[in-house]
Each structure stands twice: as C-alpha cells, then as structure tokens.
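I'll show a sample.
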Amino acid sequence: QVQLVESGGGSVQAGGSLRLSCAASGIGTGSDCMGWFRQAPRKEREGVASMDTGDGSTYYTESLKGRFTISRDNAKNTLYLHMNSLKPEDTAMYYCAASRRRCSTWNPVRVLVSSEYPYWGQGTQVTVSS
C-alpha cells in the first residue's frame, strides 16, 4: 500500500522560505518517479518539480526553476521541496505524487502532468503574504 504524507506547509511572508517534506511508504524504491504539484483556488493543478528516484534526474516547471529545488533522502524515503524567495502567487495546496514508472523513461513533456501519477498525498497548505 502506497502512502505519501506531506508536511512543512505554513504561512510565510513574501521573500521567505519553506521546506516541504513527503514521507513515502510502499514506493520510492529507486525505480519510481516522485514529484510535487500545487493547486491554487480556482486554478488547475500544476506540476512543480519531479525526480527519478533511480538516477536522480530532476524536472522543473521552467518558471519555478531557481527558486524551488527538489531533493530526496533515500535513507528516510522522504522527498523534499525547498522553496525560496516565496511570492504571494506561490500560495496553494502542495501535493506529493508518485508513479511506479521511472520518469527518466517518459516523454519529458509528460513528467509534470498530474494524470501520469496514480498516487497522491493529502496535501499541505502554503500561504505567502505580501
């Protein structure tokens, strides 16, 4: 049984930083794809970043590259999203997602598409105030 449990969300002022965590069980064995998505009110869910747990390849939404960094602690089977220079438009529910297929084998344009991921966490809220 796959479980993804996010934590680390909260309220922060613009320019601040947060680190989100996703503790995984039943997946994340080194042959998977794990990623972060977000959904703001009245907007569609969008991909933020993903990582191939086998070779460590990372994929980012271009507009967030440089501010957001995805990483993983293999020993803890935990995925992280480091978010810096946060802006009010980063306010959203952030979700951890996983697939048993290694994302380095996918068409790259599909890596940050939410429908490619069958497993999801419950989400953690990030609120950035100006």
